Amino acid sequence: MKHFHSNLLLTFLYLSYSTFSLAQSYASVFGSESTTWKIPFCNLDQFIITEQVSNSDIIYNSNSYKKIGTSYTGGVDYELNSVSGNGWARENTNEGKVWFVGTVETINGFDTVEYLVMDLSMEIGDDFLVYESFGETDLAIVDSIYFDAGFKHVRTTYQHWNNDEKLTFIEGIGTNYGLAYMHNYMNMCNCLLSVNKDLLQVYSNNNCLPTAEYFEEELNELTLYPNPAVNSISINHISNSGIYKILSVLGEEVKHTSFEGKNIQIDISELRPNIYFIEIDNQILKFIKE
Question: Using the 8-state DSSP alphabet, how is residue 134 labeled?
Answer without folding.
Answer: G
